[in-house]
Amino acid sequence: MSIIENLAPSELKKLRNKQRKAKRKAEQESALQAQVQVKREQHHKARQQQEQGDPEAPQLDELIPDKLARAEDPLEQALKFLQPLRTLAADRIDTHLMAFEIYFRKDKPLLMLQSIKRAHRLDPEHHHLHDCLLRFQGWLDDNLASLNPAGCVDVLDSLRDGDFGPCEKEIEQYIEACRKKFPYAIAFKPASELSALADDHVAADEAPLQPKEIAVNN
What we know:
InterPro entries: NatA_aux_su. The chain is an all-alpha fold.
């Protein structure tokens, strides 16, 4: 019997999450290297064509400082810059602090939280991290009224999938907080309460119709 077969379900889930993330990271690094190689070859070919006086040769991009500094979609350009950093410099806290700044401006709370957790794991005492935590709390206070069950379920799914690492205790606390805010949402009810609701529903379906109900149905 293999070691994997002896693992508890929770440990097996963690192992599979790590394997998926490792595979995804390897694929991203491979794709990035391939992309860099293609760009290098295109640039080299274009330069050769220009040197040979080919009138149809594509023009090389000019590095104009003002144009580069004033992108029409700065946040999207920042995201493109961030992706290889998250792959190749995931062990640097500046990568995750920058990610927070981008997602804060894009109003992406789940990704803000992910960036904060990754930064905290690297250096919980970093002065900029403290500032990010305060701003994140302020964002939550300002946007708490707009929370809805569907969005909270998405967060719960991410927590259960291990996107933020092992956090079983935090999951229970999160479910309890959601249950208090949305007491009628089935997604946050405990299994025992769901079972009781199902039993009540079956009992209601099987109950004989009363004379008044028969008259109404006829």
